[in-house]
TrEMBL record, chain A:
Similarity comment: family membership: Belongs to the binding-protein-dependent transport system permease family. HisMQ subfamily.
Keywords, comma-separated and alphabetical: Amino-acid transport, Cell membrane, Membrane, Transmembrane, Transmembrane helix, Transport
Membrane recorded as keyword: yes
The protein's name: Amino acid ABC transporter permease
Residues spanning the membrane: 24-43, 55-75, 87-115, 127-149, 184-205, 217-244, 264-283, 365-387
Cited CDD domains: TM_PBP2 (cd06261)
Pfam families per UniProt: BPD_transp_1
From TrEMBL, chain B:
Family annotation (PROSITE patterns): SBP_BACTERIAL_3
Domain of life: Bacteria
UniProt-recorded name of the protein: Amino acid ABC transporter substrate-binding protein
Domain Solute-binding protein family 3/N-terminal: 37-266
UniProt record similarity statement: Belongs to the bacterial solute-binding protein 3 family.
């Protein structure tokens, strides 16, 4: 029996600093403690400094009356509302321009991206020109362009551009008729709900039947017709219980209807068009990343062209497209804070602008604003990661 | 992406977060002397109050307050570093110590005086909010403004007072809020809003910036009290005294007829009030850590309040604002400076 000369006696553990795992743990705890201590110091120091300078701190100001007006609000707001409410007004305005911007940018981006791959020379070159132009001009300049060069040159309220005496466009914005729902209108959302439920059932049944028998119906077209047709049918049958509040020139300006303010239009157009140029390139690269052999193989199976795209190319392209698409969505939402440059009442303009200045609570307001952008971005990121996992290829 | 406003805000918030305790009870007078210049926060360009002239020199009533402080403290009215601030940036810049005096047509209100860690030192200009409209609208009074779109500068008391006025009169309005006064003028000229609102003194200044000043008129109504004055940080009472008494010296000089022209002749004056102001009878600057000639320097280099008023905003200036309530107390106005003795 041989004994290694340096072997420790049985039952004696090595000292903890010789144990790699324990050592790593100790270092990590030390780092976390150092970071926490630093943060505690920062918070304590800030509070002490603010107190010694006689600056009021805390979030109590959120319950005070704001006292100023906001031009666009998706929820009830008056100058009698609280500062807390201005936060939500700004937040919703940010989400509105961000959400509609994401929709429009995706739509334009996919169309332009696919157009750039078109065999038609003119369409491909137009798409390329669009991308190269809008991708290479700073966003702020584009916002200024739409706001100052385009929307500011529209005629005044009394010489508005009129579209069928129902839509009006002038330097104050776009005026649309607003639908007013009368009693009996409740049936229509109901019909809409029924149509959606029926469509889902139809698609599921069709899929099972297809797998079992190989036969299938054009279920998507049928559901589309159902969702559109059923509410329309109910609408007509119930005698169209909608009246339209058409904007009308009274006094200074149009009254009634819905007003889309030019600040919103400029910001939305600029954000959508700018981001769409990046999305178009992402879509093009995604499609080109799929090897041509895939298409040829699908052709060899004599799949029709639309099915090749839908079943072979796009599912694989999505895998390439979605991660950079997420970044573009995040960019768009964060870029919406440029609203403050043209006075669109978004979170930065209303809350981190006016509210901050009226209350003087810079640290609280800026912290809340940063937290909001962080949460929106993380939420979008999480959703897109989930979606990415859904469309990712299942490797076998 | 961040614009300048947010960089300043973040930097200032960061300064408050990180700065040690040492500079909290700062001696602004000592810092100013060792720096050799007063750090003065002014507007982003408001003719008559604070705006650079053709040669790039800052001129205006608010600028003269800073020049007076520099004259009193350093003996040189030109020893001023100007920091241009918009309405949103101004208080944070003062709180964080980027500037020593904020002299930027700032309205004195309870909230600002008591919750921001700041002190107002007096009133340089008694103002009130008014409305400017296009003559074409055919409107003669503010009570006809129901439903108007109104261009306002962000972060001002105007935002609050206009909302109050329309609510009190049961009228509606659309606030179109911009960061700078230049943008509000742009919006007004393009027809984005019917009405441009601000302090009446500012309206006079903004009106002469229009392409066609005669196309616009200022409505007669004044809907609020806007006493404008310089602001300093709380916690340095001596500095507060210096800024406060620099303005009082200008007002007292006008009251006793001392001007930048005659100040040297006045040195021999028999009038005891004049002798005290000019430091010929006792040293009234001592309590503030200043030399006896502190007020002499102010008057000789900057002038008295009346001179500054006429030069910058009064009849000698393009603004042509009447003295009105801004006259001295013995001439029917509000300005009443405590005596120097």
């Amino acid at each position: 029996m041989s004994v290694r000369p340096n072997a420790r006696p049985m039952g004696h553990k090595p000292p903890f600093w010789r144990d790699r795992a324990k050592r790593a743990l100790i270092f990590q705890v030390l780092v976390i403690a150092a970071v926490a201590a630093f943060l505690l110091y920062i918070v304590g120091n800030t509070q002490q400094n603010l107190a010694s300078r006689g600056i009021t701190t805390g979030f109590g100001f959120l319950d005070n009356t704001a006292g100023f007006g906001i031009v666009q609000s998706l929820i009830d707001y008056s100058s009698q509302s609280t500062y807390g409410r201005t936060f939500f007004v700004g937040l919703l305005n940010t989400l509105l321009v961000g959400g509609l911007g994401v929709l429009a940018a995706t739509l334009i981006g996919f169309i332009v991206g696919i157009a750039r791959l078109s065999p038609n020379w003119l369409i491909a070159k137009l798409a390329a020109a669009y991308i190269e132009t809008f991708r290479n001009i700073p966003l702020l300049l584009q916002i200024f362009f739409w706001y100052f060069a385009v929307l500011r040159t529209l005629p005044g309220a009394r010489d508005s551009l009129s579209f069928g005496e129902v839509f009006f466009l002038n330097v104050r914005g776009l005026y649309l008729p607003e639908p007013l729902f009368e009693s009996g209108f409740g049936l229509i959302p109901l019909a809409f709900g029924v149509a959606i439920a029926a469509s889902i059932a139809l698609i599921v049944w069709n899929k099972r039947r297809h797998e079992a028998t190989g036969k299938r119906l054009p279920a998507y077209w049928l559901s589309f017709a159902l969702i559109l047709g059923l509410p329309l049918l109910v609408l007509v049958a119930s005698g169209v219980p909608i009246t339209w509040d058409v904007p009308e020139l009274r006094g200074f300006n149009f009254r009634g209807g819905v007003t889309v303010i030019p600040e919103f239009l400029a910001l939305w157009l600029a954000l959508s068009i700018y981001t769409a140029s990046f999305i178009a390139e992402i879509v093009r690269s995604g499609i080109q990343a799929i090897s041509h052999g895939q298409t040829e193989a699908a052709q060899a199976l004599s799949l029709p062209r639309n099915l090749i795209l839908r079943l072979v190319v796009i599912p694989q392209a999505m895998r390439v497209i979605i991660p950079p698409l997420t970044s573009q969505y995040l960019n768009l939402i964060k870029n919406s804070s440029l609203a403050t440059a043209i006075g669109y009442p978004d979170l930065v303009s209303v809350f981190a602008g006016t509210t901050l200045n009226q209350t003087g609570q810079a640290i609280e307001v800026i912290a809340m604003t940063m937290a909001v952008y962080l949460s929106i971005s993380l939420t979008v990121s999480m959703f897109m990661n989930w979606f990415n996992a859904r469309v990712a290829l299942v490797e076998r | 992406m961040l614009n300048k406003k947010h960089v300043v805000l973040l930097a200032s918030a960061g300064a408050i977060t990180l700065s040690g305790m040492a500079n909290v009870q700062a001696d602004t007078l000592e810092e100013t002397r060792s720096r050799g210049a007063v750090q003065c926060g002014v507007s982003d360009g408001l003719p008559g109050f604070s705006a650079p002239d053709d040669s790039g020199e800052w001129q205006g009533l608010d600028v003269d307050v800073c020049r007076a402080v520099a004259a009193a403290v350093l003996g040189d009215a030109n020893a001023v570093n100007y920091v241009s601030l918009n309405a949103v940036e101004r208080f944070t810049a003062l709180q964080s110590g980027e500037i020593d005096v904020l002299s930027r047509n700032t309205t004195w209100t309870t909230t600002r005086d008591t919750t921001l860690g700041l002190n107002f030192t007096g009133v340089t200009f008694y103002d009130g909010i008014g409305f400017m409209i296009n003559r074409d609208l055919g409107i003669s009074g503010a009570d006809e403004l129901d439903g108007a779109a109104i261009c306002i500068q962000s972060g001002t008391t105007t935002e609050l007072n206009v909302a109050d006025y329309f609510r009190a009169n049961d009228m509606a309005f659309d606030p179109i809020v911009f960061d700078t006064s230049e943008q509000t003028v742009g919006g007004f000229q393009a027809g984005r809003c019917d009405v441009l609102t601000s302090d009446t003194s500012q309206l006079a200044a903004l009106r002469i910036q229009l392409d066609d000043p005669d196309s616009a008129m200022i409505l007669p109504e004044i809907i609020s009290k806007e006493p404008l004055g310089p602001v300093v940080r709380q916690g340095d009472d001596n500095w507060l005294n210096i800024v406060k008494w620099s303005l009082f010296a200008m007002l007292n000089a006008e009251e006793y007829g001392i001007t930048s022209e005659n100040v040297d002749d006045m040195m021999d004056s028999e009038n005891p009030d004049v002798a005290r102001i000019l430091g010929q009878d006792g040293n009234y600057g001592e309590g503030m850590g200043l030399e006896a000639d502190w007020a002499y320097n102010i008057v000789s280099q900057v002038g008295n309040y009346g001179e500054s008023f006429e030069r910058n905003v009064g009849m000698d200036s393009p603004l042509q604002i009447e003295r009105g309530v801004n006259a001295l107390w013995n001439q029917g106005g509000f300005h009443y400076a405590p005596p120097i003795r």
